[in-house]
Amino acid sequence: MRALVVYCHPVPESFCAAIRDSAVDVLKARGWQVRLLDLYAEKFDPVMSCEERRSYNEQAPRDPALQPHFELLGWAEAIVFVYPTWWYGLPAMLKGWLDRVWATDIAFKLPAGKGKIQSLMTHVTKVGVITTCGAPTWWSVVVGQPGRKTLLRGMRALCARRCRTFFLAHYLMDTSTPTSRAAFLAKVRVKLERF
Amino acid sequence: MLSFPVWNYGYPAILKGFFDRVFLPGVSFKLVDGKVRPTLQNIHKLAAVTTYGGSRFRAMLMSDPPRRLVKRLLRATIKPGAPVSYLAHYSMNLSTDETRSRFIARVAANMDAF
Questions:
Q1: What is the pLDDT of residues A21-35, one digit of tens each?
Q2: Count of Cβ atoms closer than 10 Å to residue A57 Cβ
Q3: Which residue of chain A is at minimal alpha-carbon distance from B58?
């Protein structure tokens, strides 16, 4: 299995970095090929330009900086997202990666008129989401868990029909303890061993 | 008043980054005994005007995250009881001059009464 780990946190010593390391460890130990994408480390530009938006419906974006990302999307059979939840959703950096990389003629084809979008991502059979969140679970659910929905409904809709998914969140991160964090890392490992 | 296109069932990254970087402790909320208290009571009205490529039905299947963010999260951040309106042109990819001008008229009427 070829797995792409999309990691998005600006602080190298963050708890998300520990999650990323655990995730990569477990997947490698399973004999999977793992490629890590660290969006902040590579200074990905999440902002779509005017020109890119103008041609969005017609063709794949031409920005050379995006080409390695297109290649990664084509390569991956499994994708694991690791990020902090900010304002209930994805960090802008990760949202911009989805907006710019999961593009026309890369992730999907647009129909000429009416009709369905045709997916180009059906080779992805597993999508996992691991995140940290300051808010409590109940309020996250009331707000509708936008990050979870964007990835596991929106983007997942482009993946294989029987794509497997999971969502793991450490809620109440601001009052987390070494025990709660260690327990969460253990949960991440168990989840990924069976993923 | 927020005006933005919905991309991938969410805000464009640049707007998400505006919330991430500007809605800070001491700006949009404060922490009292470890609990979040919203502080934007100076905002008495909120409206969002937006466009979606896909249909309303499809957005509902995805549980329409931006609609909920505006109508629940932002509503809870501003003055309690303040009116919140959410105006969306869905199915933008199939829009016509007629649907677009109807939508503009709806936005204008809404702003008149705002």
A1: 999 999 999 999 999
A2: 10
A3: A154
CA distance A105 to A133: 34
Put simply, whether A84 touches B (Cβ < 8 Å) is: no
Nearest to A88 by CA among B1, B46, B55, B76: B76
Say how far apart CA A37 and CA A33 lie, in whole Å.
13
SS3 assignment, position B64: coil
Q: What is the pTM of this model?
A: 0.94
Tokens 């997916």 locate to A119
Q: Kindly state whether B66 is in contact with chain A, defined as any CB-CB distance less than 8 angstroms.
A: yes
Residues in chain B: 114
pLDDT tens digit string along B34-84?
A: 778 899 999 999 999 999 999 999 999 999 999 999 999 999 999 999 999
- ipTM, two decimals, is 0.91
| Nearest-5° Cα angle at A191, B64 to A165 | 30
- Dihedral (CA of B6, B16, A12, A26) sign: negative
**With the C-alpha atoms ordered A160, A168, A101, A55, is the resulting torsion angle positive or negative?**
positive
Contact check, Cβ <8 Å, B10/A46:
no
